[in-house]
From TrEMBL:
InterPro entries on file: Hydrogenase_HupF/HypC (IPR001109)
A GO biological process held by the record: protein maturation
GO molecular function ontology, one term from the record: carbon dioxide binding
Pfam annotation, one family: HupF_HypC
Family under the similarity heading: Belongs to the HupF/HypC family.
Gene3D superfamilies according to UniProt: 2.30.30.140
Name of the featured protein: Hydrogenase assembly protein HypC
Lineage: Archaea, Thermoproteota, Thermoprotei, Sulfolobales, Sulfolobaceae
Signal sequence segment: none
Highest taxon, organism lineage: Archaea
Length: 90
């Protein structure tokens, strides 16, 4: 099973982009070439790859569900789980 996390594309440089996942979490070098994403689009990211474009409402619902599922976890565990899904820190 593949788990992906939604984020908003805020910069594009060639095939790569900078994606804002909210709460001050921004990742550089997300590969965007698998989807036709533009600045302002929300994308699902797995292991450093944008794998699908999603609308903002669905992205926000997914983020809300993630927050509900992880609200009892220690911050370090939340960060570790998020990094495993998205593809590490930049």
């Amino acid at each position: 099973m593949c788990v992906a996390f939604p984020g908003k594309v805020i910069e594009i440089d060639g095939e790569y982009g900078k994606v804002d996942f909210g709460n001050g979490t921004i990742r550089d070098n997300i590969l965007l070439s698998l989807v036709d994403a533009k600045i302002g689009d929300y994308v699902l990211v797995h292991a450093g790859y944008a794998i699908q474009i999603v609308d903002e409402v669905e992205a926000r619902k997914s983020i809300e569900i993630w927050n509900e599922m992880t609200n009892q976890l220690p911050e370090e565990k939340k960060k570790q789980d998020f990094n495993e899904i998205v593809g590490g820190e930049s």
